[in-house]
């Protein structure tokens, strides 16, 4: 087939370590990618919708925290404990959902996960006590844990390596859109229908997405809408046909721990942004539900740009002839450099200065995260990606367990002044993450087929 020959010819001449003589390869690859078809980007858009809904359901409680605290008399420790049980379930779900996706496939697996989180999100309407909210958040954590293992696995199936970081950035930007939509929706829902209706409306969005997913998704080799040319493009990166790999067999590999430790360090910072930034803006700058929408929208619009920029940046470096190792790590370092100014946000002098400082840090996180997730498909075979992402996600959720308890305890003891302490954590987390990732995987070398076959 001529198209396949063209792909192989371009790929054979592409040398990631080359310099000026190969600077045109990336442009030719990009032009060819446009010509072969674009249905893979439709799949990416459906994943983007899932990420948006996932974060709408996740963030409702953070935006409503001041109102729920008044209604139910929560202390800072109560709220920290409610978030804690979400993180416990998320850790458990990340481990089990990753293996589940590898076992049953992403079509069924993702639908099951989204159904669980949709029903759990809706179930918050029945909670009236701290225990009730803990149970609802536990169910939400189990279901929502399935999103990233499923989505990263889908992207590994549908995109060649040179496009994966950008596709990951586009999908991951849905988390920011969800965080944008939530504070815009809730001021319309709550005054008209009450706090409980917020959980019902947002939970039902997940169930509607399940119907869309089941109707539209098939693997690329079976999809009726994909052209043969696009199929050849997707398969242009040759990969060994490994057997399915239980996650326990991934534990000896340094590459597994590079990803997992990175998640352990940076994920708690995102939870801190998601669950405590609304209360920071309320307590330090006096923003209530009817005023908090625009500041939160601004923060997550900035972070949305960071997600797409981070994915584009490393992909751009690869097109210029950089190695994957250099491209991913330099992109992560650049993103990490956006974080340190957040230490000034708790006493910024004005609301909008604080908003811009927080937005810059969330943009850095999302760009860093897009590249960190892409490492899994750089280092592991497709059939193991779900398990690796699940294991790493469990590490991130365990970090989230610590941050939930720490934030609740610090704010309970220090009041609003505790935010000064909490905002010292993000700069340290990203710096340490990139150092440990580099020490564990200095060259980001994929695990060889011989090593996997022997299990050594």
From TrEMBL:
Coiled coil residues, start to end: none
Domain Major facilitator superfamily (MFS) profile positions: 43-445
Membrane topology per record: Multi-pass membrane protein
Gene3D superfamilies from the UniProt entry: MFS general substrate transporter like domains
Compartment(s) of residence: Membrane
Record bears the keyword Transmembrane: yes
Keyword entries, A-Z: Membrane, Transmembrane, Transmembrane helix
Protein origin, superkingdom: Bacteria
InterPro entries xrefs: MFS, MFS_dom, MFS_Na/Anion_cotransporter, MFS_trans_sf
TM regions (residue ranges): 38-56, 82-101, 108-132, 138-159, 166-186, 192-215, 257-277, 297-318, 330-348, 385-407, 419-440
Protein name, UniProt field: MFS transporter
Phylogenetic lineage: Bacteria, Pseudomonadati, Myxococcota, Myxococcia, Myxococcales
């Amino acid at each position: 087939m001529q198209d396949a020959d063209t792909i192989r010819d371009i790929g054979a001449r592409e040398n990631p370590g080359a310099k000026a003589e190969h600077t045109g390869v990336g442009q030719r690859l990009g032009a060819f990618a446009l010509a072969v078809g674009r249905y893979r980007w439709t799949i990416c858009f459906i994943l983007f919708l899932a990420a948006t809904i996932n974060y709408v359901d996740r963030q409702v409680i953070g935006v409503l925290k001041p109102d729920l605290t008044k209604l139910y008399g929560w202390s800072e420790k109560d709220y920290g404990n409610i978030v804690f049980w979400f993180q416990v379930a998320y850790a458990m779900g990340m481990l089990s959902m990753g293996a589940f996706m590898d076992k049953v496939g992403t079509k069924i697996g993702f639908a099951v996960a989204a159904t669980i989180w949709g029903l759990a999100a809706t179930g918050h309407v029945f909670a009236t006590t701290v225990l009730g909210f803990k149970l609802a958040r536990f169910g939400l954590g189990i279901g929502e844990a399935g999103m990233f293992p499923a989505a990263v696995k889908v992207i590994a199936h549908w995109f060649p390596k040179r496009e994966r970081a950008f596709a990951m950035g586009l999908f991951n930007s849905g988390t920011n859109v969800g965080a944008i939509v939530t504070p815009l929706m809730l001021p319309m829902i709550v005054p008209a229908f009450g706090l409980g209706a917020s959980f019902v409306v947002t939970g039902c969005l997940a169930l509607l997405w399940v119907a869309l997913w089941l109707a539209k998704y098939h693997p690329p080799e079976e999809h009726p809408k994909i052209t043969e040319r696009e199929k050849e493009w997707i398969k242009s990166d040759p990969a060994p046909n490994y057997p399915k790999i239980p996650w326990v067999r991934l534990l000896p590999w340094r590459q597994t721990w590079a990803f997992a430790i990175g998640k352990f360090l940076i994920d708690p910072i995102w939870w801190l942004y998601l669950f405590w930034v609304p209360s920071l803006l309320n307590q330090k700058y006096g923003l209530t539900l009817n005023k908090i929408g625009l500041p939160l929208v601004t923060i997550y619009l900035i972070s949305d740009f960071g997600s797409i920029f981070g994915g584009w940046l490393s992909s751009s470096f690869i097109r210029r002839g950089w190695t994957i190792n250099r491209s991913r790590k330099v992109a992560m370092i650049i993103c990490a450099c956006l974080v340190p100014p957040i230490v000034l946000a708790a006493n910024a002098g004005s609301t909008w200065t604080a908003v811009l400082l927080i937005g810059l840090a969330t943009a850095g996180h999302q760009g860093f995260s897009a590249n960190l997730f892409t490492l899994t498909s750089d280092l592991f075979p497709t059939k193991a990606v779900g398990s690796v992402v699940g294991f790493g996600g469990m590490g991130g959720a365990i970090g989230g367990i610590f941050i939930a308890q720490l934030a609740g305890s610090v704010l309970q003891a220090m009041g609003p002044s505790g935010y000064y302490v909490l905002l010292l954590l993000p700069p340290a987390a990203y710096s340490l993450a990139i150092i440990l990732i580099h020490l564990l995987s200095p060259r980001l070398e994929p695990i060889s087929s011989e090593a996997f076959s022997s299990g050594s």
